[in-house]
Amino acid sequence: MLTYQNRKFYLDGREFVIHSGSLHYFRALPAYWEILMRKYRAAGLNCVETYIAWNLHEPRKGEYCFEGIADLEQFIRTAAKVGLYVMLRPGPFICAEWENGALPSWLFRDPTMRMRCLEEPYITHLKDWYRVLLAKIKPHLHGNGGPVIAVALENEYGSFGDDFDYLSQVEAIYREAGLDCFFFSADGDARAYLCTGSHDHVLKGLDFGIGKTDMPGKFALLTDRYLDGQGPRLIAEYWGGNFTHWGDEKWYECDDELFRENLSQIIENGISYNHYMFFGGTNFGFMSGANLVTNGSSSAVPGRDSVFRPDTTSYDYDAPLTEWGDYTERYFITRELLGKTAQEPLPPVPPAPEYQTIGQVKLTASASLFDNMHLARTQKSKTVECMEYYGQDYGYIRYRKVMSYDAPRDAIQIEGLRDRAWVYLNGELLGIRMRTQDESAVKLPDGLKKGDVIDIFVENCGRVNFGTLTYRGDCKGIIGGVYLSNRAAFDWEVSCFDMKDISGVSYREGTQAGLPAFFRGTFAAQPGRECFVHMENFRKGIVFVNGFNLGRYWEIGPQDALYLPGALLKETNEIVVFETDGLRGEPAVTITAEHGLRGKTHNPVAGL
Q: Within a 10 A sphere around the Cβ of 53, how many other Cβ atoms?
């Protein structure tokens, strides 16, 4: 087992320094888990760390998924096969720029729900979830012959709250489930975070990024205060990069020499660390999170000046291994520095990914979403409510009202827009509105007449994954109401489009479908070779290849293309683009070997 003494870790009685890298199983297809872990081993790492995403595993209360990309136990077994130990971080809140920090949206279908504290019914739901999850983890603990050497308690709780009773309850649930292993916490590198992040008997790991700083000085915060002064030094998250929001941000690019300097200090001082992220991966589907940002920083307390900023589909993070698993200079710096401390030669570096350029793919068939209402769950609703009220988690929702009277109304007002709305009158687009950026009323120049149809189509752009909204939940759709010239509008038809299965869309040849619309095409490819779908002719939406949701695209950048894993490809493939804002040219995409991360300088096909 992993133990400690005199500020050092010991594993099975031998001195042990953790050299770990984060790899989130839910951000890479299972076909890539083993090759990525072999790249970790070849870099000199001895451990892999992952969060566990509750919302991925329990999408509905009591309905559990541990298959495919959610096969946590297979991920752990793969680590053991490759020769890596495992550090697990089950949250339940994980932040991670992941949708709602992995707290399932069904939790806050109850408007009285209060999360991350010792309150019912949250604690009962948490116990139910952990009863399933921890039973799967227990057989893989190192003491039971598996690779799991450490498990985290909650996550960055010092940035959130101070309910010590709740933290004690989380630890008690772990122990009652038989998790006889080493526990740690992860918090920011300041006393403001550390004083409430966990109890003093739990090892407090620090989270911080690369910088011009004396690395051992960060650990002065831990001197003689925790674990009776015997606790080893642990960087729970060493940020060698960062995530990116949609919009005018640039991709973070790490200074290689500063990285070398910092990592040298960590290694030379015998400090255990986890590189977050050593491989970032992709926010497939609708799972990218969002932040409320003030002056360029994530805001813990949503305020009047906070701007809602969704995260990009790419979670490249400027990691040593790119989003698609290729090498950067920092990978080889890591291998060089860790190789000097290795007791035996490091394994050879696995081959770089192989790429392909397919060229332009024309999308020759189309279908209007509103002509395919069988894709939605539709119901009558007296009032306009949030997605969660109707049992919807992700995707889009349409609120439709048919006027039963003539009215000289001059505006449609949306109160509590979450997150982006297209407002139509009789099928004609009147305007697009965006949470915190433009929530102005939509003008009605000619008033309303009996029989007029108002459609408000709303996109969930990703739930906020950090701050106080993780206490009450970031509900989506419309959380306030709809008003016609300051008069409440009632009697709606509500249609929920979760986009889980689009196989039933009825297409027609040609590209004249009214928006929002699907556009479909086919292309030939070499299975197993990596490529990227460039969206220069489209504005905003999502892309499916062979039924798999690659994630969101948006013309505002800085991501201009979506990563298309070669493991998804067959000799003949179907691609479907769901577009909401309108075309910028003919409906066609270009699939190439170029990554499309605007402004990012490293070469994705450099290889070794």
A: 28
